[in-house]
Structure formats: C-alpha cells, structure tokens
Request: fold
Amino acid sequence: MKYTFFEPEKVIKTPEFKYILTFLSATGRTQIGWHYAIDLAWIYSQIRNWPTGYKILDAGGGRGPTQFLLAELGFNVTNLDLALSEPAASIQKRYRIQFKTADSKRDAAYGDHLSKNYAKQNVLRKLRRAVSGSRFYQYATTNHYHRVHERWRVDNGIVNEVGKLVWMRANLCKIPEISSNSFDAVVSLSALEHIPIELLPQAWAEITRICKPEAKFAITTSATEQQATWYHKPSQGNCFSEDDLKRLFGAYPDETNLPANGMIGKYQACTYLKDNLADFYRKSAENGMPHGKWEPRYFPVGLVH
Reply:
C-alpha cells in the first residue's frame, strides 16, 4: 500500500480533473466537499483502466458521487454505509439499486452527525419528501436524471452499459453478511477518517477481508502536517499523520510523494477551491470549513494498491 499527497494547483490542470468537472457540473453534483473534486480526479486516474468486470466496494460511500461515476462508466458497485436510507426513484431506476440493511448493523455517533447535517443542508427536505411520492414527480425527476446522465455519457463517448448498485446499510467494523474475497477493488471518498480511531483497525481488517488478496485500492482520507494524528471536531474526522498512515493502513510514501510539510499552505492558496466552496459550508459550523471561512486545517491523501 502506498500513500500520496495531492498538490491542488497541479491536479486542477490535469485532464482527469477536467473530466471530473464535466461529470459534476453536467449531473448537478457541484455542491460537494471542499476537496472532493481533487480526490475524485485522483480516484478516476486510478480506476479508469480497471476492467469493467471488477466487482467494486465503495466503503462509506453514502450518497456521494464516486459510486455514480463508476456506475456510469460501467462498473457494478456495492456501497456500504451506516447512514443509507431508501434511494430516490431517479437513482433507483437508473442503477437498479438493491437496498438492504445488514442484520449486524450497529449505529454509530457519526451516523447521527450525518443525519443532522443532511437536514441542515436542505431546508426543503420535508417538502420534497412530501411531494416525491407522487407519480408525476417521480416521472419528471427520473426522466431528467436519465437525460442529463445519458447526455454526459454521449459527450464522453461512453458505450458501456450502466452499472448496477447495491446499497447495504452496514457497519464497516463488522460485516459477516459479506464473504471473504468478494471484491476485486475498493474505493472510498473521504470516509475512513470518520471511523473512531480505536475502531479503525477493526474496520480496515474487515475491508481487507472482504476484498481479494490482489484487490486494487483507490481511497482518499484526511492527512495532517503534524507529527501526531489529531481530531477535527467540526467535521468529526481524524487527520492522519504519516506515522499513522503506516501504522493503521500499512501505507508507505509513493516514490513521487510530496512532503506533508507545506501542504496546508498549498490548499490555503488555492483560489479555485476557495471560489468554488459549496454553499452548505456557510450555513453551519459542523463541517470541514466552518461557516464557510476558507481555512483548510487538513488535506486529502490517497491510498493506492
């Protein structure tokens, strides 16, 4: 396992970043985590040459964009997350989602945190839920979702059949319902840092158990310049030191890896990320950029195998 830090200004200039921007903008997914476009560009650079026959695990995928990008590229993906609920009709139909709850599921504090933040991000949530059951609403949203995604696929020359999704509401620390060696690859977008650090070895062992020994990994999480891992309370996430990237994930620096020292300054100076900060950050202090004040305290790191 290797780890690598991303220099934001360099990533923004890559074809992979531009490709991800077309997906996010064309499909209405621009209101995302402050560094997610950087993460996704790196994840895409890793997965773009994977065989579409791979069975992929999205660890802690929630309703995040990675699984939908992969499905549009033709991959079948299983999304394991504590906070999942019934999918909207539009994505249910598009990806033929099979939704289930693991018998072994145990709630965790971060699941409550996610639920509260989702409610704060969408003041019209109750109204939308009230009207979403109507046949007209489901027909309109499903057709719109289909059109914009098909247009993006055509524009990018994608001919593979759209992949299927499985949503399993489950605790990554214990998933006996899934057999060992089930997955060819695992992706994760900024999720593992939210697992309590004392439980992370258990979760990591379970993730590696359900993946094949030769499985590919393309995971992003949070890192720090500091010598010791610390906890960012507003986002309820751990910021991992280089020592803990090795201790917890068995990861060593990539041969071309940039030093951690100075990375925060590179993100603070990135005007693109600052100018495109999602609106929801300004509405709460319980996130990675409290009240929308541009002051990165941590930065993304990629784990690849």
About this structure: The domain at 2-304 is CATH 3.40.50.150 (Rossmann fold). The longest helix spans residues 135-155. The chain has twelve helices and eleven strands. The two ends are 5 Å apart (CA to CA).
